[in-house]
Amino acid sequence: MDSLLILIALVFALAGFVKGVIGLGLPTVSIGLLAVTMTPVQALTIVIAPAIVTNIWQTFAGPYLGDIVRRLWPLLLGTAVAIWGCGSLMTGPYAQHGTIALGLLLVLYALLSLTSVRLETPPGREKWVGGIVGMLTGVVAAATGVQVIPSMPFMQSIGMEKDELVQALGLFFTVATVAQAFNLTSAGLLNSSTALPGLVAMAMAFAGMFAGQMVRHRMQPEQFRRWFLVAMMILGVYLSTSANLDFMR
After folding, report:
1. Which runs of consecutive H residues, i.e. helices, occur in 60-187?
2. Which of 44, 61, 95, 194 is the most exposed place for a label (fewest CB within 10 A)?
3. What does the pLDDT average to over 156-175?
4. Nearest-angstrom CA–CA distance, 37 and 32
5. C-alpha angle 201-215-48 in degrees, rounded to nearest 5
6. Do 189 and 63 form a contact (C-beta atoms < 8 A)?
7. Cβ(79)–Cβ(175) under 8 Å?
8. Confidence (pLDDT) at 249
9. What is the mean pLDDT of residues 10-26?
10. Which of 68-72, 201-205, 210-214, 226-230 has the lowest mean pLDDT?
11. Looking at the whole model, is its pTM more than 0.90?
């Protein structure tokens, strides 16, 4: 147990640091790294509490909340409904494929983020496209615990300002992680045994975030972001290939 808590502390310090520097990445980094030693659903039970708390803080750290809700409510609703409706993807008979799916998702996320291609969604199509994107994101999140595809490209495509986008990410991830917490609680996976790991994860995530925010002012976030995405791609390849080999044995 001590070695597990040390691993959790190190993983969440790094994940919090990444979030402090670039404004996102806590669930992606932490679930990706923890999935090397446990299943994605086990990793998600540890990630849920610090993810909800840090994202709530990010949600209210800005003046754009009303406009964000008005523009993104179909995305938020679609994501929540799909996560609730597809909860069995992570805890049911298909859960063994979660690590492979997570690895492939990390590779896709890194490749899309590293390219210079930027999609644009016309204002008149924001709501119905957002609803579809939300449903797709919810299915992916229910299966892997990661909520960045295809929600992240969509939110980048609607032309939000930098600070508004950061606040929008906080609200979106809050809604998604609360929906996932509901599924985990219903499945009996969030209980007293996850309390101590969750507290350690939360404390280290906040420590990492504060360190990342200080570093953000001394380095170029874009340079750090590139190296982070390359690392996520390598981790994704490792997870998908190693899990596939274990599955074939």
Report:
1. 65-85, 88-91, 98-114, 126-144, 151-157, 162-186
2. 61
3. 86
4. 10
5. 20
6. no
7. yes
8. 47
9. 84
10. 226-230
11. no
DSSP class of residue 125 equals G
Q: Are 181 and 46 in contact (CB under 8 A)?
A: no
Quote the CA–CA distance of 31 and 101 in Å, as a whole number: 12
Residue 201 has pLDDT above 90, yes or no: yes
State the residue for tokens 């992570």.
90
- Go through 24-53 and write b for each residue having 16 or more CB atoms within 10 A of its CB, e for each that does not: bbbbbbbbbbbbeebbbbbbbbbbbbbbbb
- Is-contact 80 147, C-beta < 8 A? no
The 10 Å Cβ neighbour count of residue 105 is 25
Percent of the chain with pLDDT over 90: 29
67 pLDDT more than 90:
yes
Taking CA atoms, 72 is separated from 10, 21, 121, 216, in Å, by 34, 25, 13, 28
Alpha-carbon gap, residue 26 to 206, rounded angstroms:
10
Give the torsion sign (CA, 26, 95, 171, 168): positive
Q: How far apart are CA 23 and CA 165, in angstroms?
A: 10
- The residue behind tokens 């994940």 is 15
**Distance (Å) of CA 89 to CA 82, 139, 220:** 11, 8, 39
